[in-house]
UniProtKB/TrEMBL annotation:
The lineage of its organism: Eukaryota, Viridiplantae, Chlorophyta, core chlorophytes, Chlorophyceae. The keyword Hydrolase applies. Residues 310-516 form the MCM C-terminal AAA(+) ATPase domain. This is DNA replication licensing factor MCM3. It is found in: Nucleus. InterPro entries: AAA+_ATPase (IPR003593), MCM (IPR031327), Mcm3 (IPR008046), MCM_CS (IPR018525), MCM_dom (IPR001208), MCM_lid (IPR041562), MCM_N (IPR027925), MCM_OB (IPR033762). GO terms for molecular function: ATP binding; hydrolase activity; single-stranded DNA binding; single-stranded DNA helicase activity.
Length: 910
């Protein structure tokens, strides 16, 4: 039989030519893995000539191996324990040949020249779920798809130990390998106590070498599990740079070697083995990791953001299959974008995430709206009220199975950090469980003090909840708090509360029925009419996983059979993929600004909001008008929390249009949305109650609720805004409310003086005995309210700027970079060029290779570091770097590999 070492050498020779092979990509020229070695290191910020190791794993694509030698690929899949170490040896020899001197020098300086191989791509029948992992795949390379359900702590694993003998003054080294090691046979795991001569040995723990080790469990995807059977799971072992690459709840595809482990039973080895998957690479399948915003996408997003009513388009594209609910859709769109958080100097945290609650009659698509948000949000976690406990939402204390130590396991809200948590059947939760989320909804932290553990976990997420009324259907004659039976302390933490009613209207019912029937009649192109398969396989999901992001469409084709009136009116609808890209692009834009402010101002700082003076005044006037409403005209008490809500909503609308300054229009949209949330209509006997009867007034406080969404009584919202004499509020109300939805407001400008003083027959006026009117009282106390608003705005970090500040900034930027010809490179100093290159490398480290960078962001960071450079000169240098990367690298001069787009003034990393 051929010796194993000779087989290893032969396989190494076969892999040797792979790294030098030139792969031809249509439209992009040739490419080899010699260029991929540049991804293994990065420049150190502040020094353009110093580098450091970024990762010790080179990712190899399966289709490249197939193109190079398909027989070699099949051998790798069938015998990975022989081929994978040989593959890594070939890579090490390739690096030692001097193809990349920088990488070779860095590896030699660290004393460890080993680089691991990671694999990605389509592995055919070797792509399986945990249920399909049978003995046929033992010691073979497989790609397992599943959901991470449990992750252990990262612990050091001993690789080699060093022992010292006092008698001989000699050091002894011993290597350790277990069954999960990819090289060599397992070794004895006990420490040597004596050397060969019988002298005692002492372990030098500081000289021992360790490697990070972590164990996780992945469970079968629910859509691939057979009907009526519980999903299967398998254990995965990750080492080195792969640890902490996934967290509970992530959908992953883990490529690894399926290895058997001998089991023990009362000290004896049993014939029944268990198997683990030794990871080689981990790929996330979540929407945020799959969605890549290309340069063409960024160009279209910027054009779309310039539309005057872009919120209408985003709201209508949120869930086009659901009829109506335009107000809710626009509010949920603002919730997805969110505001800006801030941490004050005294440690107080002001959240930027927006919380929303939907309550109403059964069967009005509340749960479907939750699903639509989950489908679009880059990071979303779903749960239900009855199926979740307090610790399940926050964090639970468990006992580690290996060490017996107490440890924390994250709940749904902690897992949804920087995302959205959707809670259906919110009313079914017990009061004890609901109390646990009070801290999360305002402070956005989870504090644990039990079992000897005292810590605080981040839960910076938006909460979207749906609840049914207490009595089955919504009663308009009682307040919303009595309808949902939720405490005021919890309701006040929701920025938006939408009441969705099942109103009876013949015309509307006809439209809903036609819309639902169209959903069943419509057959998309390519549908053969066979229906949905009873069981989906991993290979079926591969079609969606491998979809090229560049092929995604921007507009959804509107079909008259499916969209009905929307198609007849030529209403445009964005695709779900492009809507997700729009959201990711906007959130990254402002997250970068927050990161830059934090780096400049220290931990906990955030960028100050910039708001026009007229917008600040509009908030003051609107807050005064809300405070002037009687209890029969509003749903909840008006507190400073309402001010923070208005700021968050206005900031979200500013982010929707990718603006830098919160304008009066942004505030007007926020105020119009708050009108639908705060104001109430008067129904039933309350409308006819005597004005002077205190009991009637008390009963009126339990009055009906304006659903703000589904009423069909007429469209007087814009008319009333026009009566107010506020054209911007009229535009915002029209942009926020459908034509058929009323906005119940006191009609200003047509009321008599007697009505204003509480003596007229107005249904919404106070009783005759009420001495000075609320409006007059609010007018007299206007200065005090203005001071309260100013204090709240200052605490939120809002800076006031003159009106037209954003337009002036845009005009100045256009004038600065409006020259057609870029300045020559000689106009830039060597220090400025080095600073640009160094900062691009730092951005690559911080943001990742898939991110897009705006030239304005780069210029702002350079100016903060004292580097003065004009926009035109910076754009010209970036264009030169984009065109001359290969030439300068061949000369031994490092340049970042970027692609610069002149039209969008953005560059991406290659």
């Amino acid at each position: 039989m051929e010796d194993y070492s000779e087989v290893q050498v032969q396989i190494t020779r076969l892999f040797a030519g792979f790294f030098e092979y030139e792969f031809v990509t249509p439209g992009q020229g040739t490419w080899s893995y010699a260029r991929a070695l540049e991804d293994l290191y990065e420049p150190i910020e502040g020094d353009g000539k110093a580098y450091r190791i970024k990762t010790r794993r080179l990712m190899v694509a399966e289709h490249h191996l197939r193109k190079y030698d398909e027989a070699l690929l099949q051998q790798l899949l069938q015998k990975p324990l022989e081929c994978l170490p040989a593959f890594e040896d070939a890579l090490q020899n390739f690096i030692k040949s001097g193809v990349d001197p920088v990488l070779l020098r860095l590896l030699e300086e660290t004393g460890n020249t080993h680089i691991s191989i990671g694999l990605k791509g389509d592995f055919g029948r070797h792509e399986v779920s945990p249920r399909e992992l049978t003995s046929a795949f033992l010691n073979k390379l497989v790609a397992v798809f599943g959901i991470v359900t449990k992750v252990s702590l990262v612990r050091p694993k001993l690789v080699s130990s060093v022992h010292y003998s006092e008698a001989t003054k000699q050091y002894t080294t011993q290597q350790y390998r277990d069954v999960t090691s990819l090289r060599g046979a397992p070794t004895n795991t006990t420490y040597p106590q004596f050397d060969a001569s019988g002298h005692p040995l002492s372990t030098e723990f500081g000289l021992c070498k360790y490697i990070d080790n972590q164990t996780l469990h992945i469970q079968e995807l629910p859509e691939t599990a057979p009907p009526g059977q519980l999903p299967h799971s398998t254990e995965v072992v990750l080492e080195g740079d792969l640890v902490d690459s996934a967290k509970p709840g992530d959908r992953v595809a883990i490529v690894g070697i399926y290895k058997p482990l001998a089991g023990k039973q009362v000290g004896n080895v049993t014939a029944v083995y268990r198997a683990v998957l030794v990871g080689v690479s981990v790929h996330k399948l979540n929407k945020d990791s799959q969605t890549k915003v290309t340069m063409a996408d960024a160009r279209e997003i910027k054009k779309l953001a310039q539309r005057p009513r872009v919120l209408d388009l985003l709201g209508g594209s949120l869930a086009p299959s659901i009829y109506g609910h335009d107000i809710i859709k626009k509010g949920l769109a603002l919730m997805l974008f969110g505001g800006l958080e801030k941490t004050l100097e005294n440690g107080t945290h002001l959240r930027g995430d927006i919380n929303a609650l939907m309550v109403g009659d059964p069967g009005v698509a509340k749960s479907q709206l939750l699903r639509a948000v989950m489908n679009i949000a880059p990071h979303a976690v779903s749960t239900t009220g009855r199926g979740s406990s307090g610790v399940g939402l926050t964090a639970a204390v468990t006992t580690d199975g290996e060490t017996g130590e107490k440890r924390l396991e994250a709940g749904a809200m902690v897992l949804a950090d920087r995302g959205v948590v959707c809670i259906d059947e919110f009313d079914k939760m017990s009061d004890q469980d609901r109390v646990a989320i009070h801290e999360v909804m305002e402070q956005q932290t989870v504090t644990i003090a039990k079992a000897g553990i005292h810590t605080s976990l981040n839960a910076r997420c938006s909460v979207l909840a749906a609840a049914n009324p207490l009595y089955g259907s919504y009663d308009r004659h009682i307040s919303v708090t009595r309808n949902v039976n939720l405490p005021d302390s919890l309701l006040s933490r929701f920025d938006m509360l939408f009441v969705v009613l099942d109103s009876m209207n013949d015309e509307r019912d006809r439209q809903v029925a036609l819309h639902v029937l169209r959903q069943h009649q419509y057959r998309p192109p390519g549908d053969d009419g066979r229906g949905v398969a009873m069981q989906e396989t991993i290979h079926d999901r591969r079609l969606s996983i491998d979809q090229d992001p560049d092929d995604l469409r921007m507009w959804l084709k509107v079909d008259t059979r499916l969209h009905g009136a929307a198609a007849e009116s030529e209403q445009q609808v964005l695709t779900t993929e492009f809507l997700r890209k729009y959201l990711i692009f906007a959130k990254r834009k402002y997250a970068r600004a927050a990161a830059q402010a934090a780096a400049k101002g220290g931990p906990g700082s955030a960028p100050s909001l910039v708001m026009e003076e007229s917008a600040v005044k509009r908030i003051v006037d609107y807050y005064v008008s809300l405070r002037a409403l009687s209890p029969t005209q509003r749903n909840f008490p008006v507190t400073p929390r309402c001010l923070e809500t208005i700021i968050r909503l206005a900031t979200a609308h500013c982010k929707v249009r990718l603006g830098d300054v919160i304008s009066r229009t942004d505030v007007a949209v926020a105020c119009a949305l708050m009108d639908h949330v705060m104001r109430r209509e008067i129904v039933g006997e309350e409308a006819n109650a005597p004005k002077g009867n205190p009991a009637a007034r008390r009963d009126g406080e339990e009055g009906g609720e304006d659903d703000g969404d589904d009423d069909e009584d007429g469209g007087d919202g814009a008319q009333q805004a026009a009566q107010d004499g506020d054209q911007e509020m009229e535009d915002a109300a029209a942009a926020t409310a459908p034509a058929e939805q009323p906005a119940e407001r006191p009609r200003r400008g047509k009321r008599t003086r007697a009505e204003e003083d509480g003596e007229g027959p107005s249904a919404s006026a106070p009783s005759q005995g009420a001495a000075p009117s609320r409006r007059r009282t609010a007018r007299n106390a206007g200065n005090g309210v203005s001071n309260e608003v100013a204090a709240t705005l200052a605490a939120a970090g809002v800076q006031s700027v003159p009106d037209g500040h954003e337009e002036a900034m845009a005009a100045a930027a256009a004038a600065a970079s409006g020259s057609e010809a870029f300045p020559t490179l000689e106009s830039l100093t060597a220090e400025a060029k080095a600073a640009v290159v160094s900062q691009i490398g730092a951005m690559l480290e911080e943001r990742g290779r898939d991110d897009l960078v705006e030239v304005s962001d780069l210029k702002r960071i350079l100016e903060a570091k004292g580097v003065s450079i004009s926009s035109a000169a910076l754009e010209g240098y970036l264009l030169w770097v984009s065109n001359n990367h290969d030439i300068e690298m061949a000369k031994g001069n490092y340049l970042p590999d970027i692609a610069y787009d002149v039209d969008s003034k953005m560059f991406s990393f290659m």
